Amino acid sequence: MSDFIQKLIDNIPDYQQFLTVDEMDASSRKLAEEYPDLVTMFEAGRSRKGHPIYCLKIGQGSRNALMFGCPHPNEPMGAMLLEYFSRALAEDEQLRKSLDYTWYLIKSIDVDGTQLNEGWFKGPITLTNYTRHYFRPAGYEQVEWTFPFHYKNYRYDKPIPETECLMKLIDQIQPQFMYSLHNAGFGGTYWYLTREIPSLWDKLYKATEKQNIPLHLGEPEVNYITPFSQAIYPMITSRDTYDYNEKYGKVAPEKLMNTGTSSADYALTQGYDTTTLVTELPYFYEPRIQSDKLMDFSRREAALKGKAMMFENRMEVKKLYDQIQDLISADNSFAKMVCNGFDHLEENYAQECDFIRQDPNYDAVCKESEAFDNLEIRKFSVLFQWSLLIRSCEHELTKQPSEEAAARLRSVHEEAERQFACRAEIAERDLNYQVIPIRRLIAVQLESGMLVADYLQHHRD
Predict the structure, then answer these.
(1) Which residue in 354, 363, 413 sits closest to 389, CA to CA?
(2) Which of 13, 326, 367, 454 sits 20 to 30 Å CA-CA off 141?
(3) In this prediction, what percent of the chain has a pLDDT beyond 70?
């Protein structure tokens, strides 16, 4: 590994908590004031609620690079990476020269959503506290999945303001390297890339091994993806989703889809020579996620049981949500995520199960890592829907509804709180998890990014 990358990794602070949006903005402003000849802070756009989306421009390299944090607002790891990396770039002339990029850095691209997660940013970071204060928008309101998309019988042309901000910046700078900074909740490390670079695979594995964070050896995020290598995947595209729905679904794909495509796909379809990286890392670690121990059942059995657990949980949430659906206001972002997909819930579940039954990859004996992903992590995953239902009720109760409406909302809120508490107790009991220090997570994410950025500098087309 290049000396400048090692030095960069070695100097990461031991962060103990995450920054709020106001703290990010203040820190960026301070950096620009300290280094006025090197750092420019500009307003790249505005959020749906009118909050400025700030971008830092640092350096004068021969190529452009764009990095943005919080594309999913419950994933602030990248914001902390940029908090550190922006200052490292400003302070270290040799680092800027070694990388030879002009850097465009947005700490939080979804500032409104990030603020709705700030309840857990200062800790304690536990399964219960994280999920109880969690927010993530429905797909059709996510920055990363509302880029324009036209394919076969489907057309999406409704980018949200935050996405329009990114589109404008991507069009303006046509980045050679783009890093959409995500992170996962539970599991191990895995990566997405828009191009196959086999010479980097061992270096990426080494980056996570050095921080004692395992590879994610459980199930991929979607059934229909074939890895480049272990835990390294091609970037998922909306075309893949359409084709999967077309092949296995009983409902026309265009009726199932309500989102656009990703930033990575947008840059490529615009004809830009952009390589995009995503590094997924967990807040929580459990040893079973890396176990190759063979179980006494097939991967198919585990996958189908896991899908059933999630489906049954969704149905229980839906029964309660239906009791207050008529009380939900248009600005209730929590409720949008709760009910997203309800229209085709049973069809989607049947489609996923059909795929698992037909795909020969599920014939194999299940590894413990796969069993853990399918059966145990679900005890954590079910908590999100209950928390969002709780917050949906709380959002409406702040609006001083009628006595009858308030009574219904309080009743559903109370039952959702009870259901959440029961499930959280099970998750805390059954998952022998550890919280991974923020510094180690940033180290893997940052080293992965620098490896790809450095490779692109030395392998120009």
Answers:
(1) 413
(2) 326
(3) 99
> Vertex 64, ends 58 and 67: CA angle to 5°?
70
DSSP, collapsed to helix, strand or coil, labels residue 447 as helix
Higher-confidence residue of 220 and 408: namely: 408
**Average of pLDDT values for 313-320?**
98
> Environment class of residue 319 by beta-carbon count within 10 Å: exposed (0-12), middle (13-18) or buried (19+)?
exposed
> Distances from the Cα of 369 to the Cαs of 43, 192, 211, 412, in angstroms?
44, 20, 20, 36
The neighbouring-strand residues paired with 147 are 261
- Say whether the peptide bond before residue 234 is cis (omega within 30 degrees of 0): no
**The model's pTM:** 0.94
Q: In the chain, what is the straight-line distance between the N-terminal and C-terminal CA atoms, in Å?
A: 22
* Residue 451 scores a pLDDT above 60: yes
* pLDDT of res. 461: 56
Helix (H, G, I), strand (E, B) or coil at 124: coil
- DSSP three-state, residue 45: strand
Q: Which helix (H) or strand (E) holds 414?
A: helix 403-430
Q: State the pLDDT at residue 358.
A: 93
> Which of the four pLDDT bands, split at 50, 70 and 90, describes residue 104?
very high
Interval 1-58: pLDDT, tens: 578 889 999 999 999 999 999 999 999 999 999 999 999 999 999 999 999 999 999 9
Token duo for residue 108: 């939080």
Angle subtended at Cα 126 by Cα 282 and Cα 181, rounded to the nearest 5 degrees: 30
Between CA 313 and CA 308 the distance in angstroms is: 8
Tokens 């203040």 appear where?
26
From CA 105, how far away is CA 89, in angstroms rounded? 11
Whole-angstrom Cα distance, residue 104 to residue 169? 9
What's the token pair of residue 48? 């749906």
Phi, psi (deg, nearest 5) at residue 379: -65, -25
